[in-house]
User: Fold these one by one.
Assistant:
Number 1:
Amino acid sequence: MSVPHPYWLRDNCPCPECRAPRGGQKLFRIGDLPDGLSAVEATRDATRLAVRWSDGHRSHYPAGWDAPAGPDERTEHAKRLWEAADFARGLPEADWATYLADPEERIAVLAAVRRSGFAVLRGVPAVAGQVLRVARSFGYVRETNYGELFDVRAEPDPANLAFTCLAVAPHTDNPYRDPVPTLQLLHCLRNDCAGGDSGLVDGFQAAALLRAEDPAAFDLLARTPVPFRYRDRGVELSAEKPLIGLDPRGAIREVRFNDRSTDTAALSAPAPAELDAFYAAHRRFAATVLRPELRLDLRLAPGDCLLLDNTRLLHARTAFEPGDGHRHLQGCYADLDALSSTLAVLRRTAAVLDELEALFEGEGSREYLGEAVTLAAHMLQAAALARAADAPPALVAAALLHDIGHFRGGGPELTAGTGDRHGEGAAARLAPHFPPAVTEPVRLHVDAKRYLCATEPGYAALLSPASVRTLAAQGGPMAPDEAAAFAAHPFGADAVAVRRWDEAAKDPAAATPSFAEFRPLLRELMQP
Ligand code: OGA
Ligand code: ZN
Ligand code: ZN
């Protein structure tokens, strides 16, 4: 049979010699592969592709290993480009308390920042410093010369137009920095002056319009590095980047737009004809950005926190009159990589929990090794006993999941383990998602039975008939040296605790909680 390109295929070998068990990092370098590598033998069935290589290595690829990735998340292809009217029915927004409590709401907010370039959190306490809490709820604060956070209000000796009461035209922040902060947060503490409304413009949409209407101008702006500069006491920042940044395939990936900070005196090769073309293009892009239909107007109220993609959205404000009132925002910077990671982990966590729940409710509700309860009821009862004993969350989770090695199914997140070594199998399936305090007692719960039968007189008599039958296959009671080693294992005592609940959790008359009750506890353990 034909196989895909040999180096590509081998580069993706998932075996434990090629990949670290935990994070899947590659353990070989690309140059280590022999010249002239080829597949000597390849067989494919419904579940996997098996390959024997010319250098003797063997690889097994599970079905679906080569599912193609979507488009680069940072480019226009992964975005929903917008005009103001697209939000006539409401902004992407959420209540802060709900966002904190409900992972689905967090997913919705973070996904909105990625897709639309912004979201508004309402009800963030209008107290100084909270903007940092918002940033830390999904990522890391990017400290700059403006501090960890900065106050946006009229100041007596402003270093920046933002710190006056004048209007601020649509712009991206800090274009003079490389790398530019990819996220900006603005949290409103007070806003009771006349004026001081906010405006947002989708810079990708403006760039896409320019490309459609004046492709030559678009190309010129994408190719011309523009110097940006910021100076203040003790600060001298500069960066040279095009106003429209493209990815290697030509898709829009970044917009930098800030008239205040361009340092065009430093433009290279200012031949008059080139400058003519540059200024015509620059002015055309500026006019596009200012089209009224592109500008989304909103007014921040105390407690509102705006999250925006600073590589895409331009933000603005109208002038305000200090008069009797005050306008005070606090801002900080953060980055999209951590936001995307948090979003991916939230989604992955939800997928793993959904898979586990489906296993409990499907396969798990069938008869189990001739016991009086189903496998699902058995594990749920074990978890209920652990919870009733006030066991720490990791141990409740271990009790709940201790027998998932008996499940054959499992989706892309939980690939099936081996049936008979079911402690090992379960631990291996859980290891990518749960800490050792969960996976180790699960892994050791079979050995714990052998340990207890060896060390506790009368323990064997407690075993159910099915458990007695499997004991022999599992190796029988431990020999004294094996039992001593087990007792010394850091998770030996936890495994014994799980084992005792395991033994007691086979009561057809006992109340059995639902899997859903344990979702929050499991989710908590899955977040780093
Ligand atoms: C800023 C800014 C806008 C505002 O601080 O970067 O542009 O609403 N502020 O005051
Ligand atoms: Zn700004
Ligand atoms: Zn078991």
Number 2:
Amino acid sequence: MQALASNNLTVEKEELISDALPDFASESYKDAYSRINAIVIEGEEEAYANFCDLAKLIPEHADELVRLGKMEKKHMHGFCACGRNLAVKPDMPFAKKFFSRLHNNFLEAFAAGDTTTCLLIQCILIESFAISAYNVYIRVADPFAKRITEGVVQDEYLHLNYGQEWLKANLDSVKKDLMKANKLNLPLIKSMLDEVSNDAEVLHMDKEELMEEFMIAYQDSLLEIGLDNREIARMALAAVI
Ligand code: PL3
Ligand code: FE2
Ligand code: FE2
């Protein structure tokens, strides 16, 4: 009985430790942060360029898309400040490679005038990824980065919403292309999540929690676009098969 009680105590203590904030000044934290910080800086920079490209594909919404793009530039500067605040140098070559396959698919779709694929990649997949990561990060971030990220995540919902509304309005004509683009690009998000998960763990960001948050944002947006449960299930399965 005595042994059982002390074991319970140990478990509670371990849970307390893993729930606590990380040591932001430790070498291991700064090493993991150099890659994660670079990923968000690169992601925001590419998002800016992607919205500028989208403004060319949908000229009737050019002003709105450029305005959304400018928010991404602001986000990028905010995350640069988060790295500087922790005296971390972002590993930009790592981040460029991290995004390269998804980025190339966006550029290829843009060159082909494929608005549906561009919107799926930027507004649905990347923004859902950002929303899930930022929501999880806010819970374990240093106070400076927490404040910045709280402001950023609000904007990301607007970016997701733009793509959602366009795809909803055009669903009948784009559904087939949307499914096809999803099949090619959702697996890339899954492997990016796998690739970042060890570093995220050092920041006390749990991989399962990240995946759950991603699935919520992604599935909610597909529902909002007007897809039914079976279509959403089929699309989500592209991440695992
Ligand atoms: C577009 O608005 C944003 C594109 C960025 C996507 C980044 C996803 C980041 C995944 C890694 C975990 C980030 C935690 C946040 C740290 C500053
Ligand atoms: Fe952003
Ligand atoms: Fe965004």
